Each structure stands twice: as structure tokens, then as C-alpha cells.
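// run 5 | inverse folding | seed 20
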């Protein structure tokens, strides 16, 4: 089977580009399953029911998120009600939503786990210990982990820690695609960061000028999603659904 994983969708520009490109990509790669990170899909950051619905209608089976998931209150009920939109699993249990789900694809199940790093990020439950306890209870052979983290070393270490226990680990959050996609020794596909889906001439999808001012003056600035042509970043992973092992991983970046 083939899984498409798409990096952080930024604003309505990113949503619209996803809507125009993802159906073509799904056909081109003959994808059986698609996971999209939507944590920045609302124009004022975060994710709303409206931006989530656009991502689902573009063809996502599951939406993952990250540290921006709780920015907009209107998503809280949606996180509780829709099992196919995830927040990082290692947030406290008292927060809305859930951190993993299993999708019945007929011949096989696909489990998606969303997890967040703790280096230069919120002080959540230790992701290494957390995934150990989570994986003990998961029966699906095909398991995809979106590890939303800042530090490359934390991402590589976590993927190596669970190599052979999951089908794939894809990093998200930095919005900059890394060129290190590979199969780890025990059969887990891995990329440090998928990259983003949004305006190309930008800083992580946002207008560059206020960001420059922020770095010059250290004063608050108003962020907004940049204009112009978009890119879409992600990977296509081929998995043997009988063993759950990955067979290949291919990086995708389209303009
Ligand atoms: Fe993001
Ligand atoms: Fe993030």
C-alpha cells in the first residue's frame, strides 16, 4: 500500500493549493491513504472546523497537528467529535481530542499517531516513554507516526528508537523539508521534516518583512500569511501491509 504524508498546510492559500494538487497527487501515486498536517491551516494560525473540512475534502484520511492545535477555540469540540483529526498524544489527558486513531481500510487497518517533541517546545510528557506505552496497545500492522518537533536530533533519535516497531516516522513543524528520507535498518521509513504546503516566497509561509523586523528590533509584530505561488511538500511511502514494514520512501515537492 502507498501512503502520502503532506507537511503543514499554511493559511487559506495553502488550503487552496492542497485542494487543487492533492487529488492529482493521489492519482499519480495511486495512494491508498493520506495524512496531512493542518496545524497552521487557519489564516490567523491554528486550525478551525472550516480549514479542517477543506483538508478532508482535498482527500486527507487523517489530519495531524502540533503545538498550534489549540490556538482557535472553535476547534475544541471538533477535536472531541471527529476521531480522524489528532492533536499530539503526549498533551495532558485533560486537553480536547485524542492523539491517535485507527482507520479501517478494508483489507487492513492504518493507525496514525501524532506525537510532539519536548526540545525547545512545551514541556509535554516524554515522547519516548509515551510512545512505548502507546505501541503496546496498538494492533494495526501499518502504523504511521507524525512526530511534531523542532530539533533534528530528537526526531532522528525517536525514529531510531521505534525503528521496526512502526511503518513510518515523518517529522513536521519546521516547515522546511529535509533531504534525508530513508529506510532505517529495521524497516521504518523516515524523514526529519516533510516541509510545508503554502506560499513559497515567505518565512515558513508568513510574510517575510515583519519577521525581519522582529529579528532586528525584538518587538511584537503582526504576522500574516504571505502572498504568491505555493509549494506542496511531503513524501510517498510504500508499505507491505502484511508485515507493516516500509519498502520505499520518496520525497515530494511541487510548485
Ligand atoms: Fe506548522
Ligand atoms: Fe508546529
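// decoded
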Amino acid at each position: 500500500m502507498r501512503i502520502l504524508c503532506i507537511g503543514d498546510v499554511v493559511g487559506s492559500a495553502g488550503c487552496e493549493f492542497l485542494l487543487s494538487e492533492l487529488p492529482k497527487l493521489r492519482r499519480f501515486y495511486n495512494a491508498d491513504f493520506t495524512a496531512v498536517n493542518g496545524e497552521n491551516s487557519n489564516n490567523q494560525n491554528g486550525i478551525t472546523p472550516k480549514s479542517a473540512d477543506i483538508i478532508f475534502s482535498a482527500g486527507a484520511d487523517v489530519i495531524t497537528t502540533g503545538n498550534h492545535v489549540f490556538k482557535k477555540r472553535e476547534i475544541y469540540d471538533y477535536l472531541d467529535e471527529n476521531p480522524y483529526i489528532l492533536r499530539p498524544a503526549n498533551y495532558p489527558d485533560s486537553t480536547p481530542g485524542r492523539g491517535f486513531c485507527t482507520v479501517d481500510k478494508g483489507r487492513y487497518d492504518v493507525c496514525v499517531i501524532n506525537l510532539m517533541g519536548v526540545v525547545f517546545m512545551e514541556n509535554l510528557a516524554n515522547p519516548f516513554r509515551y510512545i512505548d506505552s502507546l505501541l503496546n496497545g496498538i494492533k494495526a500492522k501499518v502504523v504511521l507516526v507524525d512526530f511534531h518537533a523542532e530539533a533534528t536530533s530528537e526526531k532522528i533519535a525517536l525514529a531510531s528508537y521505534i525503528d521496526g516497531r512502526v511503518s513510518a516516522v515523518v517529522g513536521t513543524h519546521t516547515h522546511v523539508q529535509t533531504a534525508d528520507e530513508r529506510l532505517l535498518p529495521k524497516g521504518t521509513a523516515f524523514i526529519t521534516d516533510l516541509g510545508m504546503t503554502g506560499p513559497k516566497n515567505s518565512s515558513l509561509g508568513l510574510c517575510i518583512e515583519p519577521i525581519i523586523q522582529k529579528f532586528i528590533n525584538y518587538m511584537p509584530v503582526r504576522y500574516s500569511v504571505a502572498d504568491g505561488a505555493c509549494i506542496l511538500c511531503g513524501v510517498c511511502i510504500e508499505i507491505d501491509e502484511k508485515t507493516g514494514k516500509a519498502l520505499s520512501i520518496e520525497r515530494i515537492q511541487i510548485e
